[in-house]
Amino acid sequence: MFRAVKNKYPGCEVWVFGNELNKELLYGNKDVDRYIVYSKNINDTIQKVRDKGFDFACVTGPNFEALAILILSGIKTITTQR
Q: Among 27, 38, 47, 69, which residue carries the largest CB count within 10 Å?
């Protein structure tokens, strides 16, 4: 998925938002520019994402908490995959 986004939008930055385990799994992936780790405090996580001013987000799994964080962070365009 990350490579497809980079191919379609070569000038974009791809940031991934998730847990520590996935951060380790994606370490060294040239298609991922940055990684944000969930904070145990949901309000801290919302603020961290809001501060980045993202234009677009994609939730790649059935994760209500992640979707709620993105919505509450003020991201205007969010898509989900099934």
A: 69
- Which residue bears the tokens 């996935």? 22
* Averaged pLDDT, 52-77: 90
pLDDT for residue 15 is more than 80: yes
Which candidate, 52, 66, 53, 2, places its Cα nearest to that of 32?
Answer: 2
Per-residue pLDDT band for 82 (boundaries 50, 70, 90) equals: low
Q: Measured between alpha carbons, how far is residue 44 from residues 9, 24, 25, 79 in Å? A: 30, 21, 24, 23
Q: How many of the other CB atoms lie within 10 Å of CB of 20?
A: 10
Contact of 45 with 38, CB cutoff 8 Å: yes
